[in-house]
Specification:
Elements lengths: L3 H4 L2 E6 L4 H13 L5 E4 L13 H24 L3 E6 L2 E3 L3 H15 L3 E3 L3 E8 L4 E8 L3 E5 L3 H9 L19 E4 L4 E3 L2 E3 L4 E3 L2 H5 L4 H6 L2 H8 L73 H29 L1
Parallel strand pairs: 1-2, 1-3, 5-9
Antiparallel strand pairs: 3-8, 4-10, 5-8, 6-7, 7-9, 11-12
Helix pairs in contact: 3-5, 8-9
Length: 331
């Protein structure tokens, strides 16, 4: 029986050059789980775009779509039969590798196009095997696998004009695609600060609406750690809309991974991690371009580290409250 590393030809991680804090955290996570990966430098929003709402969110969404499109094209160009794509805020359960080994024979029998290790499942198509379900509609691309045969259709979904789309690009809205999800859910996104909206975003209730949050927490030491460090402050949940202690609000809506301001160029430098070749100059949907420069990760600055500490403090209580809300709902 093939191992996950044998079945999936390669794993890629999408990460903005400016998100060195996220890169550090996700590298630790994936290394701990024994998942080798290649960093793929994400395309940023257009230069000079300030953080905020409205058109800025659209610009970031366009850059996010362009990044996934560019990576899908690279996977096709390299001839991978199958590949896994992670975003840099992914959090996997500790036994994800064991579950993947169990699911590979089921994937072989499913003739799948897209396999979600985790997603916001909007419309469930029902179980197709013991540990796989059919996706009728779902969102979020923090952890998914693709087949070579599906890539042209996925790129076509991203390229579709906005006026012809029922949903955001991450739904891959094509009824001919065989989209499947893992049962149990293997990956979620960490609660984090959204620079595009200027407030914290916690998607855990979206994932745990259809999947077992208690089980995920039991098998994810990192998420348990975030919950156990909660200081007990009353903070908002995405569906309640109350302002939190810092005055920001969660909206629970679909967003691309947030981006941070670039670190000081004088303090940046390569860290020895394997990376994809720089993008060719191609305008993305938002009008931004890759400039083809040699990609390297900036070192985290003390200011960024302090900001991250504050953000984590704000979200720790929310992860615990999201699960408490789920428990109350079951009661």
């Amino acid at each position: 029986m093939a191992t996950p590393r044998e079945y999936f030809a390669h794993a890629y991680l999408i990460n903005l050059d400016s998100d060195s804090d996220r890169m550090s955290r996700v590298s630790t996570r994936l290394t701990r789980l024994g998942i080798p990966f290649e960093r793929f430098p994400a395309l940023p929003p257009p230069e000079g775009t300030a953080t905020g709402a409205g058109s800025v969110g659209k610009a970031s969404l366009g850059a996010c779509a362009a990044s996934h499109r560019a990576l899908l094209q690279l996977i096709a160009d390299r001839g991978h039969e199958r590949a896994i794509i992670f975003e840099d805020d992914v959090v996997l359960r500790d036994d994800a590798g064991e579950w993947m080994e169990r699911m590979i024979p089921q994937l072989r029998a499913a003739a799948w196009d897209v396999f979600y290790l985790g997603l916001h499942l909007m419309e469930d198509g029902g179980a197709i095997t013991e540990n796989l379900g059919r996706v009728r509609r779902g969102h979020h691309l923090h952890a998914y696998a693709v087949t070579a045969a599906a890539i042209p259709k996925l790129i076509a979904c991203i390229d579709r004009p906005a006026g012809e789309c029922r949903y955001l690009f991450d739904a891959f809205d094509d009824p001919t695609l065989m989209k499947v999800y893992a049962r149990p859910i293997l990956a979620v996104q960490e609660p984090n600060f959204s620079h595009t909206k200027g407030r914290m975003t916690n998607r855990l209730p979206e994932y745990f609406e259809k999947f077992d949050g208690e089980d995920f927490l039991e098998h994810c030491a990192e998420l348990r750690g975030i919950c156990s460090q909660s200081d007990g402050r009353q903070e908002c949940l995405p569906h309640l809309g109350h302002a939190n202690a810092a005055g920001s609000q969660f909206d629970g809506g679909q967003e691309c991974p947030p981006h941070q301001k670039p670190a000081d160029a004088a303090g940046s430098g390569p860290d020895g991690r394997q990376e994809c070749p720089p993008h060719s100059a191609r305008s993305n949907a938002a009008g931004s371009q890759s400039d083809g420069r040699q990609e390297c990760l900036p070192h985290p600055s003390p200011i960024n580290a302090a900001r991250q500490t504050g953000r984590r403090a704000n979200v720790e209580a929310n992860a615990k409250l999201a699960l408490a809300h789920q428990r109350a709902g079951r009661g």
